[in-house]
Every structure is written in C-alpha cells, then in structure tokens.
C-alpha cells in the first residue's frame, strides 16, 4: 500500500509532478562570488562520535565548526552547500575525507547540518558550488561568529 501523499508516479499517470523550489543563485544577492556547480547528491552529517579526533588533514575535528568531508576536493576548499528542500545554504571548509557510505557526496559537520536544516533527518539532497574570491575567509568567520551553533 502506498502512502496517500506519495507523488513519485504522477507524471506516469498523466498528472504533473511538482517542481523542486528554485534557489536564488544570484551572486550579488548572496554577497559572494559563485563558481560552477560541482556536484549534486545526498549529504549526511557526522558529529559526537568523532568530535576531537584527528581528521585526514591532521587537525582535530570540531563538530561546532562549519567544516565537511569530501572524497576528492583539496583540503581547505570552500564550498557553498545549498539545500533545495529548505532553501538554506552555508559555506563550509573541506578538512576531512569521506563520506564512506555509497551514494553520499559530502559529510557535513553538525554545525553545517544544523545551518542547512537537516540535523533531524540526518541526510538530505544538496547542491555543492565553488566559492570564488578573497572574501571567502571573511565570510566564513563572519558566519561562524553570527550564528550560535552550540
């Protein structure tokens, strides 16, 4: 028996599937220079069990910082992670390797997951975009100082 709210087959049955909400990707509106879209896929988060342990980059993992683990991007890369479901976005810094679960594209820190509104779900679909320019460090520090993530 299918859930009454299930809409996955509407287009096959002649109905129209609902479109995903559009994200405002205007760089001026976001206050940052955006590069190309790098990946789309499922993100998850990791936190308490790894807090304080050494990451692949050598620094201790802090689940309260806006960081992430990616399989191949260089350490220190800044990414704009956007959640189309919630419309929220956050800039993270790559400091670890992962995820090690099939089908996932990025593992976020607890703070980044909370900023994206995916803390309770544990995983969600995201869009990864590169962030360009020298103002990235200032944006990241500003975001960490203005949001209470603990």
Automatic annotation (TrEMBL):
Family (UniProt): Belongs to the RlpA family.
Protein's UniProt name: Endolytic peptidoglycan transglycosylase RlpA
The protein's Enzyme Commission number: 4.2.2.-
Annotated organism of origin: Ottowia pentelensis
InterPro entries per the UniProt record, alphabetical: RlpA (IPR034718), RlpA-like_DPBB (IPR009009), RlpA-like_sf (IPR036908), RplA (IPR012997)
HAMAP family per the UniProt record, alphabetical: RlpA
Keywords: Cell wall biogenesis/degradation, Lyase
Residue intervals passing through the bilayer: none
Function recorded in the entry: Lytic transglycosylase with a strong preference for naked glycan strands that lack stem peptides.
Residues in RlpA-like protein double-psi beta-barrel domain copies: 40-123
Lineage start: Bacteria, Pseudomonadati, Pseudomonadota, Betaproteobacteria, Burkholderiales
Keyword Cell wall biogenesis/degradation: yes
Pfam family, one: DPBB_1
CDD domains named among the record's database cross-references: DPBB_RlpA-like
């Amino acid at each position: 028996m299918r859930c009454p709210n299930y809409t996955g087959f509407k287009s096959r049955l002649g109905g129209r599937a609902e479109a995903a909400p559009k994200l405002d990707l205007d760089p001026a509106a976001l206050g940052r220079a955006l590069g190309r879209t790098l990946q789309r896929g499922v993100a998850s988060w990791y936190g308490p069990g790894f807090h304080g342990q050494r990451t692949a980059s050598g620094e201790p993992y802090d689940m309260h910082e806006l960081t992430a683990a990616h399989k191949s991007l260089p350490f220190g890369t800044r990414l704009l992670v956007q959640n189309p479901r919630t419309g929220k976005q956050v800039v993270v810094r790559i400091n670890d390797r992962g995820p090690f679960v099939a089908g996932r594209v990025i593992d976020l820190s607890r703070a980044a997951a909370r900023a994206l509104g995916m803390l309770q779900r544990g995983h969600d679909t995201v869009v990864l975009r590169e962030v360009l320019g020298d103002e990235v460090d200032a944006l990241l520090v500003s975001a960490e100082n203005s949001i209470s993530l603990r």
